[in-house]
Amino acid sequence: MHININNTRNKKMLYLSIGSTLVFLIYITFILNPVSGCFKLDSGSNSLGLSFSYNAEMIQNFFSSRTQKQLLCYSQFLKVWDVIFALIYTFMYGSWILYLLNKKIYLIVPILGMISDWSENFLELLMIEKYMASGSISQTLISVGSNINSFKWIMSGLTYLLLIIGIIIAIKSFLTKKSN
What we know:
Helix content is about 75%, strand content about 0%. It has about 180 residues and is an all-alpha fold. Helix 3 (about 70-100) runs parallel beside helix 5 and helix 4 (about 110-135) packs antiparallel against helix 5 (about 140-180).
C-alpha cells in the first residue's frame, strides 16, 4: 500500500480526516464535556458506557448516587449528545481508515461500534426508566446492556488496531520511498 499525498483524492481525504478530527476535539471540549456536567459526580463513574462491562451492583450504585434530576439529565445526554458524538467519532475514524488503508470494507468496524454504542444507549435509557419507576432493573436488561457495551469496546479496539496498522504501513511506505 502506498499513500501518495500528491494525489488529489488522497489530499481531499487527508483534509477530511484532519477536519473531522478537529470537529471531534471541538465537540468533546465545547459540547460533550459541558452538557455532561449536570450528571457528573466528584467521585465514582460518570458514565456506564466508559467501563468494559457492568453488573447489577454497578448499575444500582450509578443510579442511586444520582438525583432524579441528574438521571433525567443523563437520559437526555444519552438521547441527544452521545448519539451525535457516535456519529462524529465514526466519521472521524472512518475517514482516517479510508485515508490510511483505502479499503471501504474496513469501515464496518467503526460503524458496528457506533451501532452498538447507540444500542447500549437505548438499553441504558430503558434501565433508567425501570429504575425511576420501580427502583429495580432486570438482570436480563443489565446483562444485554453489558454485553453490547463490551462489543462496543471490542469494535473500538479493532478500530484503533486498523488505524495503527494504517500508520505503520504509511511510515513504512514513506521510509521505503525516501530510501529509493
